[in-house]
Amino acid sequence: MALYVYAITAEDHPLDLDEQSGVGSEPAPVRVVASGPLCAVVSDISEKIRAKRRDLLIHQEVQERLMRGGPVLPLQFGYTAADEPTIEKVLLKGADGYLANLERLGGCAEYHVRASQDEEELLRQILSETPEARELNERIRAGDPDPQLPLTLGQLVAAQVQERQEALASGLVEALVPFAREHTVRQASGADFLNFSLLVPDDRREEFRAAESSLAGQIGDGIEIRLSGPLPPYSFVE
Fold first, then answer.
1. Which among 53, 50, 64 has a CA at the least distance from the CA of 20?
2. Quick check: helix, strand or coil at residue 197?
3. C-beta atoms surrounding 181 within 10 Å
4. Distance CA 215, CA 209 (A)
5. Which residues cross the membrane (predicted)?
6. What is the per-residue pLDDT across 199-237, written as a single tens digit (0 to 9) for each?
7. What are phi and psi of 46, to 5 degrees?
């Protein structure tokens, strides 16, 4: 029978999984496949697993329970294996790398930081603080017929938005990275101008959260910082 794989742990992990059911329309108990110094946490499945809300929550719940007992290498949602021998071979072949990763991630959790900015507030700031933009805007509002004015203003505003948000993002990263063992910055999307993840040691968790809270209170009008965590260290598994 096929197996859904949640995570990899060391063989001495406490594996507190009592009464934990797995993903799928007919949930099977979560169990362990051991191979040498490693274990894979799995459950039996008889269907193709899709990203339904219940299954996403179960996937996360299993990994969070494992995190409470020690380091874990979380797999992304949807990873399956054909059978136990397949998993055993993978664990044996990659044992050195998996063990090194477990040691590196021990005593840490992942946190996501995202930041966005209210577009109207940002535009007001640019028009108020940038003389050239303010002048162009006033000419347009006064009825100046020059057809190039809107394009010139739009280009100027776009450049200002990029410059200001890059500076904000850089400042936030610089302020929070000292609390992390590792970090990774991703391409922001949608309304966000910042999207990055940090691997924060447990003994610095409170300092980190206090620093993030302080930044959120100081950063200014129209800017929202969103913090998620502690999470399994998806972004730092090599």
1. 64
2. strand
3. 15
4. 10
5. none
6. 999 999 999 999 998 888 887 778 889 999 899 999 998
7. -130, 20
Calpha distance 204→20 (Å, rounded): 30
Map 1-41 to HEC letters: CCEEEEEEEECCCCCCCCCCECCCCCCCECEEEEECCEEEE
| Tokens at 24, concatenated | 């799928």
Sign of CA dihedral 119, 122, 127, 133: negative
Q: How far does Cα 107 stand from its chain's mean position?
A: 18
> Tens digits of per-residue pLDDT, 124-149?
888 888 888 888 888 888 877 888 88
Which residues neighbour 54 within 8 Å (Cβ) at sequence distance 6 or greater? 23
Decide if 69 contacts 90 (C-beta within 8 A).
Answer: no
Residue 66, token pair as written in the block:
């494992």
pLDDT of residue 216: 80
pTM, two decimal places: 0.83
d(CA 167, CA 88): 48
What are 29's two structure tokens? 């108990």
The structure tokens 């136990």 sit at 84
